[in-house]
Amino acid sequence: MRTGFGRYAMELRSARGLKLSEFCEGVGLSAPRVCNIEFGRAPATDDVVGCYIRALDLKGDEAHELRTRAVFSNGVQKNLEQEKINPPLRALFETFGGELSPKAIAEIQSIIERETGRSVKSLAFASNEMKGNDQRSRKPKPRPLPNPKRFAEICLIAEKVRTSVASEMSPVKIGLAVELLAANDDRLDYQVVEGLPSFMEGAFACILGERSGHVILIEADRFISGEKGVHFVRHVISHELGHHYLHADLLKSDGEIYLAPQALAKNTPDMIGTQKQVEQVVETLEEAEAELFATMFLVPWTAYLKGTALTYLASDYGEQLDEVKRYAPHFRNPAVIDAFKFALWERGTRLHPIFSLN
Q1: Which secondary-structure segment (H or E) carries 190?
Q2: Which of 94, 99, 331, 345 is the most buried (most CB within 10 A)?
Q3: Which residues are CB-neighbours of 58 under 8 A, at least 6 positions away?
Q4: Cα-Cα-Cα-Cα dihedral sign, residues 81, 84, 89, 93
């Protein structure tokens, strides 16, 4: 998670409505470089702090607080460097870790388990399909569906999160959204990186569980394309947000590995809409729920009740048309409508368009 300096800097950006990319342009640093500074992997030098102060137009107490936090965070980083356990081994992993294959990672894991007698488990959801787990060789199972009660619950959770970053009639600005959500949630953070760890090969976004919360990792190039409006990138980032809000109990540092069987992240922008497009496969309920959250975060579920053409919903809100179409039948299902009515009534909502539906 971010250092005290990094978190305060993010809060200042969000208070000014600044996206990370806009801030990076102002300080003249890349997004991965800014994240390294704010996560304590690089020092917040006086020159860097000065750039922050100018880019954010800080005065008085805010500038002083930022400088104070920078000094403290740099001190913590220095102490951590001195307290490293087995520096040669750490250096080996830092130097060659990015070049290791999933098979090699698995072999290292088995060695650690054999030598220590402790089970080594991962802590990540990812918009990816692990290499060697080729699903093209078998027919995918039908996508599981949440029951009507859970469907309504997820839609209402997504609505609550969405309304904290965008109005009902406006599309979500994905870069600003993750900045605002992370700034206002001590258990959520995100980091823009040059590339994901090797065990996430093929993915461009994943969410990691840590003791202090969850961190969404997003590749820099894809993050920028998501900010520019590429629909499937917006969807994948929203999907990872869904895991934070829906599956926090599964994302623990000592929990088992949960890798989403999604190949969507392997698509490149030029593949979308062509024969080369990788088929998206969702076989677990957790992944299906995160998919539902992603669409309802980008497209307010109440928009389905207005009878707007689905093509317009997709284009107006910046979501993939196939995903918008996927959930339309649910809003014609009496059981789902009843589940919404019950949930809203329980919350004390008595006036809502859904109560007029039969």
Answers
A1: strand 188-193
A2: 331
A3: 12, 52, 66
A4: negative
With beta carbons less than 8 A apart as the criterion, state whether 127 and 236 touch: yes
| pLDDT one-digit tens code per residue, 303-353 | 999 888 999 999 999 999 999 999 999 999 999 999 999 999 999 988 888
CB 140 within 8 A of CB 281: yes
Residue with the two structure tokens 């809100």: 317
* Sheet bearing 213-219, strands edge to edge: 124-126, 205-210, 213-219, 188-193
Q: Which two tokens stand for residue 75?
A: 């001190």
CA 136 to chain centroid, in Å, comes to 26
> Per-residue pLDDT tens for 88-98?
666 666 666 66
CB-based contacts of 55, cutoff 8 Å, min separation 6: 23, 26, 27
pTM score over 0.70? yes
Which pair of structure tokens corresponds to residue 114?
Answer: 């054999």
